[in-house]
Specification:
With 214 residues, this protein is α/β, with parallel strands linked by helices. The chain has one domain: Uracil-DNA glycosylase-like domain (Uracil-DNA Glycosylase, subunit E, 3-Layer(aba) Sandwich), CATH 3.40.470. Helix content is 36%, strand content 13%. It contains 7 helices and 7 strands; from the N terminus they run αβααβββαβαββαα. The strands form 2 sheets. It has a 5-stranded mixed sheet, sandwiched between helices. It has a two-stranded antiparallel sheet with strand order 2-3. Strand 6 and strand 7 form a beta hairpin.
């Protein structure tokens, strides 16, 4: 039985810039979670959704991935419709929503300034958390990467070259170890407001995954 995926302690010291930003946010927003955001969902998941990092007033507020900001308003209803979640998404950690065969995490566990983690922060979090998390999900069959950073981070975590698996919305990559890597543009407000990602585009990727994993 694989060990449980590690989660960072509340005062994880690994990334000095993120530690300083966390402390500033604790002073500025004392009612927020203001700590590394743990993964959501159990270890029996067949699908792992990987985002970029917690949003300042989203997951950094709520303590649950994609909860409290616009991205969750697209992600969670789409997962519910595809059978990967059940209940009602109320944009709050106590809304009672449950994931079904699905788990959600981020490439970086802590909120970064301007939502832009550095290469070193991505590398640090990947080695400490994403790599062992992938290894600890015994039924995992597919990863949905939301954006190029998530896509690249998953490839590096599996020891694969990014140049061999190009990121593109709707791309479908069969990895050598049998894992399926599916790509989507990140479901951020910016991407949806600019029309780069429409709800229909996102739904098509998630529905295809549901069909693949059924």
């Amino acid at each position: 039985m694989p060990p449980s995926p590690p989660e960072p302690e509340r005062d994880c010291p690994r990334c000095p810039r993120l530690v300083a930003f966390r402390q500033a946010n604790r002073e500025r927003h004392p009612g927020f979670h203001n700590a590394p955001v743990p993964s959501f969902g159990d270890t029996e998941a067949r699908l792992l959704v990987v985002g970029l990092a917690p949003g300042l007033k989203g997951a950094n507020w709520s303590g649950r991935p994609f909860t409290g900001d616009y991205a969750g308003n697209l992600l969670y209803p789409t997962l519910i419709d595809a059978g990967f979640a059940r209940g009602r998404f109320g944009a709050a950690p106590d809304d009672g929503l449950e994931l079904v065969g699905c788990r959600i995490t981020n490439a970086v566990k802590c909120v970064p300034p301007e939502n832009k983690p550095t290469t070193e922060e991505i590398r640090t979090c990947r080695a400490a958390y994403l790599e062992p998390e992938l290894a600890a999900l015994p039924r995992l069959r597919a990863v949905l990467a939301l954006g190029k950073v998530a896509h690249d981070t998953v490839l590096v975590a599996r020891g694969l070259r990014q140049s061999h698996y190009r990121f593109a919305h709707g791309a479908w990559h069969d990895l050598p170890d049998g894992l399926l890597l599916a790509d989507s543009y990140h479901c951020s407000r910016y991407n949806t407001n600019t029309g780069r990602l429409t709800p229909a585009m996102f739904r098509s990727v998630v529905e295809r995954l549901a069909a693949e994993l059924s």
